[in-house]
Amino acid sequence: MAEVDLSDAEKIFIKHGVQDNCREDGRGCEDYRHIELETGLLSNTTGSARVRLANTDILAGVKAELGTPSPDKPNKGRLEFFVDCSANATPVFEGRGGEELAAEIGNILTRTYDCPSCFDLEALCIIPEEQCWILYVDVLLLECGGNLFDVASIAVKAALYNTKIPKVTVSRDEGLVELEISDDPYDVQRVEVQSAPCIVTVCKIGHSHVVDASLKEEACCLARLTMGVTERRTVTGVRKEGSGSLDPASLEDMMQTGKRVGELLNKSLMDSLLEEERQGSKKKPVGFLK
Question: Which residue stretches, if any, does this entry annotate as coiled coil (predicted)?
Fold first, then answer.
């Protein structure tokens, strides 16, 4: 991850601002920066989305392929994440520099989506123990400007919302099973993401905490919670990072902030996705692929 070197005076300024609920860019402690969102950008995917928050730019694409259910989940489809950190995002990612961060993002996405109540994998099963849809979700980090986990989760949820899987008809004849995949672009199955989680990263700075930390704020953070939160405030995964410790009161306070902000983030994202879909072909592309 890109790092910023700050002087002691800069760190004190940032900590005091957070303590007074007025960050260096004027935001309150629970405010996100402006987010740009686009879906349906990549024609060679089943669904795609691009999200930009300040200088963080992430592209997510979904490809649906037929495969075999996992032996331990014979009546469910599969959701697999692959994350790549472009060397153009920051010099730190050159060579194999981004592999560790990519693995971290992929692991926490897998963990937050591994919750029966937040994502219905049974809807992706065609024939139990034999055939199911596998959704391969590729996440590409194009530019690094802080708060990577949150932006990656927003891009993933938006790409899954944009995903349209062809309808499959199952027929049996003399013991043989045949699958017929519809080639009608309107005869599709949508992925239900209403209850899918977004990740909220809560950073402890001084005696207070913030969400959507900038690179400078991340440099002042000694401990953070990365939480998967649904629109109903259900926490689907939590991970604590950093060398600093968290006392029980701070931990509870940060968890409540994460749930409160996560609820609003999910609702705002769904409202934006529904509005973009209503606009249809009238929507104006705003990103680099226009």
Answer: none
